[in-house]
Amino acid sequence: MAVELARCRPGYRRHGATGLRPEPHAVRGPRLAGDLLRQRPRALTDRRERLRLRDDAVPRGSDRGVGDAGPRVRRALAGALAIAGLGAAVVAAPSVPAAQPDAHVPWIGYLANEPTPDSTPVLRNALRTHGWDEGRSVKIYYRYAQGKVDLYPQHAEELTRLNVAVIVAIGAPAIEAARAATRTIPIVMVSLDDPVVTQLVAAAPRPDANLTGLTTFVAGLSRRRLELLKQAVPRLARATALWNPASASVANELRETQAAARTLGVELTAVELRVDRDVRDALAAVLAQQPQGLVVLADSLALANRERIVTFTSRNRLPAVYPLRDFADAGGFLSYGPSWTDVYRLAAGFVDKILRGARPADLPLARPTRFELVINLRAAQKLDLRVPSSLLERADRLIE
Q1: Segments in 316-373 forming alpha helices (H)
Q2: pLDDT tens digits, 335-350
Q3: Does residue 142 form part of some domain?
Q4: Does one domain contain both 133 and 193?
């Protein structure tokens, strides 16, 4: 029977009376492993069929079965099963990727209100310039509050439990939540306020133990914004400032705007935008002032409500100047503020230094050095405004 089984073995031929010689293409090792996988399952089927036929040939009255077919048959069947099992295991095994992820890739937590075109893509590109390629040499966990203030603490706690190497926090609510969640994980903040004035850090040269980063608050920006609005709307005599009284930094900005208004001969009133006050009530109060222009002061609350503010100014044909290009992108008329590309370039620099071993307390706060003027010409058309050519020539970006 052994000869009979061997005679059917794929890859062999009869040689002499009883011997077998491998065919030239016979499988001899892993060099032809593909042939092994193709041949063995069929070989197993052929052998099982021959054994079944031989077993059926046993007289019905006999209790002899395959289990009693003899040691040679049992050894042949066991060998065939083992070979087929090996082939099945190779086929079922998942393919191994060319490069396995590094178990020591650092993790970055990113906490903000929402994703914007000028945030995460810019940050990724800025990190890449320092050698941190997302998905390869670094992993980023993004968490967004989407306008729900109560989600900031939850997201901050989650990032802390993940034990990320550093947290990038955008805006006051994210910064405060991250700071409350951890005193050990480094935090790189992007603050619209002056963190020294708001007492987030003790001093700009040597910030808090685990908190550093940058602020987009720069003295003189508020004055510059009102000047630009006056150039765009020469008839401007009355204006209203929309501001958040909860921020000491914004209070300073309001005083700066009031001083600029006196110099420019513009009557300025102020309307508060608070967390505990409906935005519609604040905007209704603005309308009650009957202004000829609106100045929106830089604040996370205003930024989170930019769609509603922009819609309000458009519906009421009220020219407005905004602190960030996000407002102009949302349909606002005029914005003047820091370049987000510059902001995230600076933030990526802080992250790079921390990932390479620097202590946050040893990294002084930074401020952006590039500012951009964005004019939305579609908004100007809706407002029936003709923007002076001198202003158009100075614009860094025109939205047509």
Answers
A1: 325-329, 340-355
A2: 999 999 999 999 999 9
A3: yes
A4: yes
Nearest 5 degrees, angle CA 226-CA 231-CA 236?
A: 70
The Cα-based distances of 196 to 206, 253, 266, 273, 365 in angstroms read 11, 14, 30, 22, 10
Among 173, 164, 113, 166, smallest CA distance to 143 is for: 113
Contact 182, 111 (CB under 8 A): no
Q: Cα–Cα distance between 203 and 205 in angstroms, integer?
A: 6
pTM: 0.72
Q: How many CB atoms lie within 10 A of CB 97?
A: 7
Find the CATH number of the domain harbouring 329: 3.40.50.2300
Torsion of CA 263, 264, 267, 270, to 10 degrees: -80
pLDDT band at 103 (very low <50, low <70, confident <90, very high): low
Name the token pair of 182: 């951890």
- How many angstroms separate the most distant Cα atoms in the chain? 119
Q: Is residue 328 part of a domain?
A: yes
Question: In the chain, how many domains are there?
Answer: 3
Q: What is the mean pLDDT of the chain?
A: 81
Q: How far apart are CA 341 and CA 184, in angstroms?
A: 28
Lookup: tokens for 283: 């905007």
- Decide if 352 is inside a domain: yes
Nearest one of 247, 271, 269 to 258, comparing CA atoms: 269
Q: Are residues 391 and 314 part of one domain?
A: yes
**Is the model's pLDDT at 37 over the cut of 50?**
no
**Residue 106 near residue 138 (C-beta atoms within 8 A):** yes
Q: What's at 29, amino acid-wise?
A: G
Is residue 214 domain-shared with residue 273, that is, in the same domain?
Answer: no
pLDDT one-digit tens code per residue, 216-240 = 998 899 999 999 999 999 999 999 9
Give the integer Cα–Cα distance in Å for 25 and 78. 24
Residue 123, domain extent:
107-218+342-362
